[in-house]
């Protein structure tokens, strides 16, 4: 009976969709219950829960992933939707366009280069480098970049999770060391380095920090999407 | 159904992005093209239509959930990554720490200067 049940359930995408929704909701609830720890974001709790459930039920990842396509297809329109906050922040961008425009290319390039350099020094292969290059870019854009570079999307997503989670304590540490209180700077740094995960955290700090985080996230995404694949081809890493 | 109306906007812009990439061969994702086109369109209209906001806001709020199916994949390729672990973890950890410091330091310097202007 039980052995027949699982194939029946996984035959419909609703099983994967339901599991994902449940893990996300339970993860968010636990996160609130733990009074929003900055070192353990809701998405990390949810991802660990989901992985544990899949492992316990013995559902192969490929089967789950196939069903979850019903959710992930929405990443396309969700990326387009980021055009809305971008438009809403245009006045703020104009106000600060000079420092932001000077900082963004350097900071966004370094976000990729530091990690690539360290991984290369430690002997990581080209497939690993291609998978972690977009680690600071918001997921829907990063997936497109990684596919173009020929990296592994699964490893990219793991790198996104690790990078986003680490960015939060690192930004508060760096802000303390550098004596920075400006919420605009802190927000921008959270979005630029920590993509969606950092942006969610910035909205916890204040709406201004959140607005600058979405700005940093969008601009890093656009800049990296435009330049990283070209740079990759120039360096000759692409096959 | 304003949200449905807005969703059609978003999907249409994503599809336009696909068309643009198909003909231009640009190495970026159709989502990025759609996002830029949407931003440009809104700047021309001068406001955000409520139907668009009704679809865009919940979708942006759900970004974290939409990436979860992909994120979970990393737990299932742990075996394949054996031996590369140190390089990956060290590069993400140190790389993020360095780039966070650089970003904040740069912005502090640059914004300080623009205030002085």
Automatic annotation (TrEMBL), chain A:
<dbReference type="Pfam" id="PF04172">
    <property type="entry name" value="LrgB"/>
</dbReference>
<feature type="transmembrane region" description="Helical">
    <location>
        <begin position="153"/>
        <end position="173"/>
    </location>
</feature>
<keyword id="KW-1133">Transmembrane helix</keyword>
<protein>
    <submittedName>
        <fullName>Membrane protein</fullName>
    </submittedName>
</protein>
<feature type="transmembrane region" description="Helical">
    <location>
        <begin position="39"/>
        <end position="62"/>
    </location>
</feature>
<dbReference type="InterPro" id="IPR007300">
    <property type="entry name" value="CidB/LrgB"/>
</dbReference>
<feature type="transmembrane region" description="Helical">
    <location>
        <begin position="68"/>
        <end position="87"/>
    </location>
</feature>
<keyword id="KW-0472">Membrane</keyword>
<feature type="transmembrane region" description="Helical">
    <location>
        <begin position="99"/>
        <end position="122"/>
    </location>
</feature>
<feature type="transmembrane region" description="Helical">
    <location>
        <begin position="12"/>
        <end position="32"/>
    </location>
</feature>
<feature type="transmembrane region" description="Helical">
    <location>
        <begin position="209"/>
        <end position="232"/>
    </location>
</feature>
<keyword id="KW-0812">Transmembrane</keyword>
From TrEMBL, chain B:
<feature type="transmembrane region" description="Helical">
    <location>
        <begin position="84"/>
        <end position="107"/>
    </location>
</feature>
<protein>
    <submittedName>
        <fullName>Murein hydrolase transporter LrgA</fullName>
    </submittedName>
</protein>
<keyword id="KW-0472">Membrane</keyword>
<keyword id="KW-1133">Transmembrane helix</keyword>
<feature type="transmembrane region" description="Helical">
    <location>
        <begin position="58"/>
        <end position="78"/>
    </location>
</feature>
<dbReference type="GO" id="GO:0016787">
    <property type="term" value="F:hydrolase activity"/>
</dbReference>
<dbReference type="InterPro" id="IPR005538">
    <property type="entry name" value="LrgA/CidA"/>
</dbReference>
<keyword id="KW-0378">Hydrolase</keyword>
<dbReference type="Pfam" id="PF03788">
    <property type="entry name" value="LrgA"/>
</dbReference>
<keyword id="KW-0812">Transmembrane</keyword>
<keyword id="KW-1003">Cell membrane</keyword>
């Amino acid at each position: 009976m039980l052995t027949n049940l699982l194939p029946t359930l996984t035959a419909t995408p609703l099983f994967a969709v339901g599991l994902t929704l449940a893990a996300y909701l339970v993860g968010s609830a636990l996160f609130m219950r733990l009074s929003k720890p900055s070192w353990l974001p809701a998405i990390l709790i949810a991802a660990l829960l989901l992985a544990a459930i899949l492992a316990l039920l013995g559902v192969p990842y490929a089967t789950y992933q196939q069903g979850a396509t019903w959710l992930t297809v929405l990443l396309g329109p969700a990326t387009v939707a980021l055009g809305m906050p971008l438009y809403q922040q245009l006045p703020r961008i104009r106000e600060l366009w000079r420092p932001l425009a000077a900082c963004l290319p350097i900071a966004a390039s370094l976000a990729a280069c530091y990690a690539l350099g360290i991984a290369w020094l430690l002997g990581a292969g080209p497939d690993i480098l291609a998978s972690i290059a977009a680690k600071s870019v918001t997921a829907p854009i990063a997936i497109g970049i990684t596919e173009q570079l020929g990296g592994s999307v699964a490893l990219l997503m793991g790198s996104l999770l690790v990078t986003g989670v680490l960015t939060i304590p690192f930004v508060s540490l760096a802000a303390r060391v550098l004596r920075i209180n400006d919420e605009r700077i802190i927000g921008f740094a959270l979005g630029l380095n920590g993509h969606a995960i950092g942006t969610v955290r910035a909205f916890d700090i204040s709406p201004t920090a959140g607005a600058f985080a979405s700005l940093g996230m969008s601009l890093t995404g656009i800049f990296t999407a435009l330049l990283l694949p070209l740079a990759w081809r120039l360096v000759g890493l692409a096959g | 159904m304003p949200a449905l109306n807005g969703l059609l906007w978003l999907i249409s812009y994503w599809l336009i992005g696909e068309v643009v990439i198909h003909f231009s061969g640009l190495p970026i994702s159709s989502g990025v093209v759609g996002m830029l086109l949407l931003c440009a369109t809104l700047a021309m209209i001068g406001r955000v239509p409520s139907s668009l906001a009704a679809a865009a806001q919940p979708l942006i709020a759900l970004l974290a959930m939409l990436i979860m199916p992909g994120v979970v994949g990393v737990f299932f390729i742990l075996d394949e990554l054996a031996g590369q672990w140190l390089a990956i973890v060290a590069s993400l950890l140190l790389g993020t720490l360095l780039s966070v410091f650089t970003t904040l330091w740069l912005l502090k310097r640059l914004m300080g200067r623009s205030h002085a202007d």
